[in-house]
Amino acid sequence: SLVHEWSGISSLETILTRQFKIQKVIIVPGNNDIEPSVKTLMGTEAANELERLANGKKTVAVTGGSTVSAIAESLTPSNKFSQLQFIAARGGIGEEMQLQANTIASVFASKTGGTYRTLYLPEYLSENAYSTMMQEPIVREMMDLYEQTDIVIHGIGSAEEMAVRRNSSPEDLQALQSFGAVGEAFGYYFDETGKAVHRIRTVGIQLEQVHKCPSILAVAGGTSKAKAILSYIKNPAAQTILITDLGAAEEMIKLL
Ligand code: BG6
């Protein structure tokens, strides 16, 4: 029955919250691998959390990805939201336009009546280009915003899928494999032990800045992402709120 299903879900939420030692786990019914509509459900939960956190002027860094993108459907204009400034968590433009952080930041702003800041840079920068970029005023401004970010909203991907989606070179793919990369979030790749083993050289929020941030919403579901979510959540910031689905949650319990 529905009641049973719900009590099952809420006890799973409690178990995983304790296990991960994070602020909260929210589980929506279904499996994103099979039913794409599950993204909308996760998006609604994320939008509700954002509404709860939104009081006063706040800077919200958002990553790309189809899961974070789906939050937009549940965002509506409100006085609380209109004080938010959305920024792209990374400047990289390696992915399809609809999935890029820059696009998502601007869509969130237009949905809520908030403002946005974008930064369009190539996905992969050479060491020279990177250090030159870091001296550019617009990049420095963005780095300052990352330092003052109040809320981070990000997706989590499987390392392999993300490397392919970002057109990583065969050498990079091999390197990721040899590092044991399992999961990916905001341009960082994590191994099974939760260690960040690789970072794309691009202008974006740093892992330390995410960890310092007062609120973190991590949104990812589907059985196929269970390992990736575990690799990210292994070394978590205590203030993390994980929004996932039953498919991923049940698989994570099995893998624990
Ligand atoms: C990327 C984000 O764009 O999307 C990552 O930078 C995330 O943080 C990934 O891992 C997830 O994508 P999706 O489409 O599976 O939600």
Summarize the structure.
It is built from eleven helices and eleven strands.
What brief labels describe this structure?
256 residues, alpha/beta, globular, binds 6-O-phosphono-beta-D-glucopyranose
Overview of the structural elements:
This protein has 256 residues and is of the alpha/beta class. 43% of the residues lie in helices and 19% in strands. A 7-stranded parallel β-sheet has the order 1-11-10-5-2-3-4, sandwiched between helices. A 4-stranded antiparallel β-sheet has the order 6-7-8-9. Strand 7 and strand 8 (188-191) form a beta hairpin. Bound molecules: 6-O-phosphono-beta-D-glucopyranose (BG6).
Topology summary:
Layout: H1 2-20, E1 24-28, H2 38-53, E2 58-62, H3 66-69, E3 84-88, H4 101-112, E4 115-117, H5 127-133, H6 137-147, E5 151-155, E6 157-158, H7 159-165, H8 170-179, E7 181-185, E8 188-191, E9 196-199, H9 207-212, E10 215-219, H10 226-233, E11 240-245, H11 246-255
Parallel strand pairs: 1-11, 2-3, 2-5, 3-4, 5-10, 10-11
Antiparallel strand pairs: 6-7, 7-8, 8-9
The structure holds 6-O-phosphono-beta-D-glucopyranose (BG6).
